Amino acid sequence: MTDQTPAAPDWSRGTLASVLPSVADRLGVARYAARDVFDLPEVPRTVVVLVDGLGHDLLRQRSGHAPFLRAHFPETHRVPCGFPTTTATSMGSFGTGLLPGAHGLVGMQVLDPQTDRLLNELSWEGGPDPRLWQPHETVFEGVTGAGVEVTMVGPHYFDGSGLTTATLRGARFASGRTLDERVDAAVAAVRASRRALVYLYWGEVDKVGHVHGCQSWQWGDEVEAVDAALARLAARVPDDTSIVITADHGMVDVPFTDRIDLVHEPALMSGVRHLGGEPRSLQLYAEQGAAADVVSTWTERLGTRAAVLTREQAVDEGWFGPVRPAVLGRIGDVIVSMRGSFAVVHSGLMRPELVRLLGLHGSTSEAEIAVPVIVVPPRRGS
Questions:
Q1: What is the pLDDT of residues 183-200, one digit of tens each?
Q2: Which of 6, 137, 319, 368 has the smallest count of CB within 10 Å of its CB?
Q3: How far apart are the first and last CA of the chain?
Q4: In Å, what is the CA distance from 34 to each residue of 27, 41, 98, 132?
């Protein structure tokens, strides 16, 4: 695994947050004029596919499983998804076109300062009004307001969920259980309107990577299935339709022998009142006045296996992009970003199924942060 030192993402060029504004620009939506950073074709219809967990470097490494996507590598861009490299944060960036410090979804599990409770931004269980937590207009809302028919295709339980409402509101919802059903729904939606944006989500690559590891044969098999489905999608959309394929993050395999369990490390929990984030990227919410001691203790114990920063350091260095005042309190007093193939778990506080996962993400290794933006041009011009 990489031993790269964790560092703030490079926001100076295109990122995952650039994808939907770029698509909207090339669909002719005036409010997104000149936002395209990927040199996309100008078209009346586009299908955007997000494959959860399909990191750019993983795809390149295992491209033998993906002949359709491999054929489009010349039209592929490599961009950072943002920090932390986790689905909730990335969906905020993807859906709003904003960086994490602006949209405010700054981790898988973060503090709600109003209640002093942790919020899991994936499940949103017991969470605040998602429209208040993330108050900015989504790209789907902006595109719909311009008269473009917008459809989101995903599992039925995404419809109206907290995360969907916070990050992807504004689209008509179409559900599908299998990947073939979702391809069918996407094709039907894009054919139904002469000016359309269709978004299709698929999550099984991430799930397989978590359980079996992203270097497993099972991961390769799932990528093969996705690649074949994308080839069928490309063959069935109208001739004037482009397809853009991206991901929310990559992944690394973390051996169970390369982990610390905080159940057995009471000194590391001293001064910590809430443990947020996830095993590759923890956010520690300290007792009053204890942050400096927490930084010192964690730095000494973890050594070169992690970067340990205060909230102020992370914000000043741009890890979250510019941070609006209402978001500051959601970020941990201390950020712990893991290096190499290392993770920190807490088997007493984290769900057992999370502790058991082999493939993880959240930190800033290239394998986790780099995602593809793959452009499949229309078969003919608009």
A1: 999 999 999 999 999 999
A2: 137
A3: 45
A4: 11, 13, 16, 29
Helix (H, G, I), strand (E, B) or coil at 369: helix
Amino acid in the structure at residue 68: F
CA angle in degrees (0–180, nearest 5) for 266-270-273: 115
pLDDT given for residue 370 in this prediction: 98
Q: Is 215 exposed, middle or buried (0-12, 13-18, 19+ CB in 10 A)?
A: middle
Q: Left (φ > 0), alpha (ψ -120 to 50) or beta: where does 364 sit? A: alpha
Residue 113 is classified by DSSP as T
Report the chain's mean pLDDT, rounded to a whole number. Answer: 96
Hunting for tokens 């990927």 — which residue is that? Answer: 38
d(CA 164, CA 124): 10
Query: What is the strand order of the sheet 196-202 is part of?
Result: 76-80, 370-376, 241-246, 45-51, 196-202, 149-154, 172-175
Residues 6+ apart with CB under 8 A from 37: 13, 14, 18, 22
> Residue 107: is its pLDDT beyond 60?
yes
The pair of three-digit structure tokens given for residue 202, joined into one six-digit string? 């698929």
Predicted confidence band of residue 2 (pLDDT cuts 50, 70, 90): very low
Q: Are 102 and 95 contacting, i.e. CB atoms less than 8 angstroms apart?
A: no
Closest by CA to 115, choosing from 136, 98, 129, is 129
- Asked if residues 238 and 190 have their Cβ atoms less than 8 Å apart, the reply is yes
Secondary structure (3-state) at 332: coil
Give the single-character DSSP code of 63: G
**Domains in the chain: ranges and CATH:** 16-253+365-376 (3.40.720.10), 256-359 (3.30.1360.180)
State how far the Cα of 226 lies from the Cα of 205, in Å rounded to an integer. Answer: 8
CA distance 182 to 197: 15
Rounded CA gap, 360 and 164, in Å?
23
Q: What is the distance, to the nearest Å, from the Cα of residue 167 to the centroid of all Cα atoms in its chain?
A: 11
Rounded to an integer, the average pLDDT of 284-291 is 98
Q: Binning pLDDT at 50, 70 and 90, where does residue 5 land?
A: low
Angstrom distance (rounded) from CA 362 to CA 336: 10
Q: Residue 261 carries which side chain, given as an amino acid letter?
A: D
Hey, is 291 helix, strand or coil? helix
